[in-house]
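My current task is to audit a protein record that another person submitted. Alongside the sequence sits a line of tokens, each denoting a local backbone shape. Please read both lines and tell me whether the tokens look consistent with the sequence. Do not assume that whoever made the record got everything right. Thanks in advance; the entry in question is below.
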Amino acid sequence: MTATTPRTELPIDRRSTDRAGPAIDIVRNGELRVDRRLTDSRRCPFGAYGRMDARHRLSIVRTPGRPGDRGASVRRPSRGHVRVRVTAAGVNFVDALLVQGLYQIKPPLPFVAGGESVGIVSEVAAGVVAPAVGDRVLVASGAGGFATEMITAADRVWIVPPLLTDGQAATFMQSYMTAFFALARRAKLERGQSLLVLGAGGGVGLAAVDVGRALGLRVLAAASSVDKRRVAMSRGAAATIDSSTEDVKTRARELSGGDGVDAVYDPVGGTLARSACVRCATTASSS
């Protein structure tokens, strides 16, 4: 059976831009904003087909409804793969880069972003020993997480422990594994040493506060607002620095007894990072 595909037209914002990125930028209030590189019959990332005419209007061909409503077959997981019903997905900086076409990996359009997500396994294919149908899992797929369901290799999923909510688990992998690798593997920090975390109110910075405390470090948390600093303190920071009003270098030295911290964790970059990293660390750590 062939599905009927209604056609609608949406106004185009004609922008002059040479930046790299996907043809479709954003859908807002029913208006589709498209850059001037969209060509005839190019497929849109959100799954519809777009056609721009000489009047610079885009015709969108949509197929509304669920797959079962339009007679389309649902893709089945192949050997070694599982289907996951997504309940939460983490939103990371890499996702923002991917959808703008600014990441070093540029998947062909259309694609679904979402590198880490959590959900319930709803189907397993042949050759899968674990997980099982009904298991709650963390999916490290690299893409595809911003969807209702996804199919992924079974070796890319892990069982979520009961102590984590769906939202916590969906934001765990990139932030916390980055923090653990940086502090335990690269810096090789030991219990009792001091750590200054910049941007401690963000997801990556807050993960570093958590991991630092778990490793037995004395954590100083720098953040720009009262609420962010309060959260960092609640997660175990020994002290906080107001990065919007205080000199981070001077304050970090004061809070570390005048000797400076052993390491600086920097997910922010820029002038603040250069000042803190070069001048706050101890002489031994800097050499």
Notes: The chain is about 25% helix and 25% strand. Confidence is low (pLDDT under 50) at residues 1-72, 283-287. The CA atoms of residues 89 and 143 lie 11 Å apart.
